[in-house]
Amino acid sequence: MSEKLTIHVLDENTSNKIAAGEVVERPASVVKELVENSIDAHSSKIEVEICDGGVKFIRVSDDGIGMATVDAKLAILRHATSKIQFVDDLAQISSLGFRGEALPSIASVSRFSLTTRLHKEPFATLVEVQGGKITETRESGGNVGTTITVSDLFYNTPARQKFLKTNATENGYISTILTKLALSHPEISLRFINNNKLVFSTPGTNDLANTIASIYGHKTASELLSVSYVDNGIEISGFLSKPSILKSSRNWQTFMVNSRVIQSRFIAKAIDSAYHSLLPKTGYPLAVINITLPQDYIDVNVHPQKSEVKFSNEQIIYRLVYKAISKALKEATQDHQNIAANLEIPVKKLHINTTFNSPRVSQEQQQTVSLWRDEPISFGTVQKIIQEENSIVCYDTVADGMALPDENEQQLSFQPLGQIEDCYIVARGEDGLYIIDQHAAHERILYDRMYNAAGRIPVQQLLTPLFMEFDSTELNIVEANAEVFHSLGFTLDLVGPNTMRLLEVPSDIPISEVEAIIREILTTLSNMQSPAPGELRHACLQTAACRAAIKAGDTLNMRQIKALLEDLFSTELPYNCPHGRPAIIKFGAKDLAKMFKRT
Ligand code: ADP
Ligand code: MG
User: Fold this and answer.
1) In whole numbers, what is the pLDDT of the chain averaged over residues?
2) Which positions are tagged coiled coil (predicted)?
3) pLDDT band for position 279 (cuts 50, 70, 90)
């Protein structure tokens, strides 16, 4: 290279904008930094108001210690912080901030105004900054504490603006981070107002359960298990939902270390493992978990947004969280033999396999039978039912399973032979042997029926409406997609700050699956980035069909098998489920010959 390179020291404003790239990713990061500053300023009340996804306007007001005029001017300079002075201070840091980067970064990419007043001062100081340049400093009126206003975020960095999502999505991010901050400081009353609407307001009474109730609703809060576990000077505490209210995403999980909100994959994993070892269900419990440990067990300075911490020993923390969660779940089930009954899981089908001798099969041959019950039942009862119903169920299953073609059902060109592993249906067709995956088949049938419905999907009215609680992120998605939910056959209306009432649901969906389906659709919607309407409908129908379809493990009698095959073969694409997996595998005469090497 012949050209000579020249090295410049970047001016302050440029380096602030670069730092802003790390600290200020989106409106939610501004909200996070400002509220953390208010928490560090020993506030007892914090109010956050936003407009249009926070892009247009964010205001955070607190009643904390405030700043002197000279500090207010210093605060917007890079690396100006009152929280540490020396590197060694980092090891014992108890404040949320310490890098002195947030205010200058935010002020460099917005129109920024700070009003602050110390308790002992009669006046407040106002500092205004536009795109990183101070435009005004003067005395002004104002309450004790600090108010920061951030308008037109990223107005001078169009590249950043392009990365922003819809207002509804940005609202969701803000709501999520505020929820977590509010949960991590139940001693502070936090109010969140979005487009002039109160989203939540926490009581600030230092009671975590009440704080959870003020955010997630009383119904959710009343169904929580408390977590409390101490070992070796490390304490795990908080709340956890019963498996009956598993959520569709991890959005409902808040983890804290010494009251600092953190992201942590391995804590999430520990919770999953503890849960799923007890209950093989999919979904994520709501969790608010705080880990309290000596400050020198962790390093908080590993990430510019301070959202991750490094533990000196992750293994120990993983094990403690696992134990704490298992203990909470076990305590809740101690009085009963039956976890399901105690945790009020709406058990639709309780599957019990038992071995018995059938009167219709030879002495040595044994059959396995499954029983379905509509409500939780004790193991004693189960044994009785098995004894009572053995003969009946067995007779029915065996008789049907061995059924010879019925006179009046000859017209079906498929002759079902039986069910294998409660999962596959075996049938004889005119041209060979068919094996059908019962779940995939039913999924295809339901999907097509809903897809082909002219206009709105046929609905069933609920005699008693279902009530569902949503957090504000979910409410935003529901509201933004009201049309989609309506066309899918769901009629939902808002009846409380977090509660929606369901009046109508698609007629092909079992009521017990409705809540799970809606939550799964919400997850799908929040993961899709500006989908085409067709794509969206396909994804939603796929979810609904998959949830509503009979599962592997469901025992079917011969009538059900016949109905399923008839419906399947009247669809246009019987060979695949809506996800594209095979629903039918066929062995023609040639295939069979080949396999038996009969050439
Ligand atoms: P950091 O929080 O890392 O110190 P910031 O840029 O976020 O850096 O804030 C700079 C300084 O401004 C803080 O150290 C604090 O002294 C002061 N400050 C910011 N916000 C507030 C507030 N709401 N109340 C009182 N002081 C504040
Ligand atoms: Mg800060």
Assistant:
1) 81
2) none
3) low
Residue nearest to atom 25 of ligand 1 (CA): 66
Task: Kindly state the average pLDDT of the residues 85-106.
Answer: 80
234 contacts: CB under 8 Å, gap ≥ 6: 291, 292, 293, 297, 316, 317, 320
Domain 415-585 grouped into CATH 3.40.50.300: no
- Best residue for ligand 1 mutational test, from 24, 32, 37, 121 (most atoms within 8 Å of Cβ): 37
For residue 116, report the distance from its CA to the centre of ligand 1, in Å.
11
Q: Which ligand is closest in space to the CA of residue 60? A: 1
In this structure, which residue's CA is closest to atom 12 in ligand 1? 75
What single string gives the DSSP state of each residue in 205-254? SS-HHHHHHHHH-HHHHHTEEEEEEEETTEEEEEEEE-GGG-BSSGGGEE
The torsion defined by the Cα of 116, 64, 304 and 90, in degrees rounded to 10, comes to 120
The residues, ordered by sequence, that sit 6+ positions from 373 with a Cβ below 8 Å of its Cβ are: 347, 349, 350, 385
521-576 pLDDT per residue, tens: 888 888 777 777 777 888 888 888 998 899 998 999 888 898 899 889 888 888 88
- Where are the domains positioned within the chain? 12-86+93-201, 223-332, 415-585
Which of ligand 1's atoms lies nearest the C-alpha of 145?
Answer: 24
- The letter for the amino acid at 547 is R
CA quadruple 288, 290, 291, 296: dihedral positive or negative? Answer: positive
d(CA 594, CA 599): 7
Which residue in 526, 553, 559 sits closest to 408, CA to CA? 559
Please give the Cα distance from 466 to 504 (Å, whole number): 9
Residue located nearest, by CA, to atom 13 of ligand 1: 81
Write the CB contacts of 412 (distance below 8 Å, at least 6 apart in sequence): 562, 565, 566
How many whole angstroms separate alpha carbon 486 and alpha carbon 504? 9
pLDDT-based confidence at 344, cuts 50/70/90? very low
For the chain, percent of residues with pLDDT exceeding 70: 83
223-332: which CATH number, 3.90.79.10, 3.90.1150.10, 3.30.230.10, 3.40.50.970?
Answer: 3.30.230.10
Strands 287-292 and 253-257: parallel
Question: Is the shortest distance between the CB of 19 and ligand 1 below 6 Å?
Answer: no
Q: Looking at ligand 1, which atom is closest to the CA of residue 95?
A: 2
Length of the chain: 599
pLDDT tens digits, residue range 143-171? Answer: 999 999 999 999 999 888 888 888 888 99
Tell me, what's the pLDDT at 389?
Answer: 34
Query: Which H helix or E strand runs over 440?
Result: helix 438-451
CB 589 within 8 A of CB 598: no
Paired with 398 in beta bridges are none
* pLDDT value of position 21: 67
Distance of CA 234 to the CA centre of its chain: 28
Domain 12-86+93-201 sits in CATH at 3.30.565.10
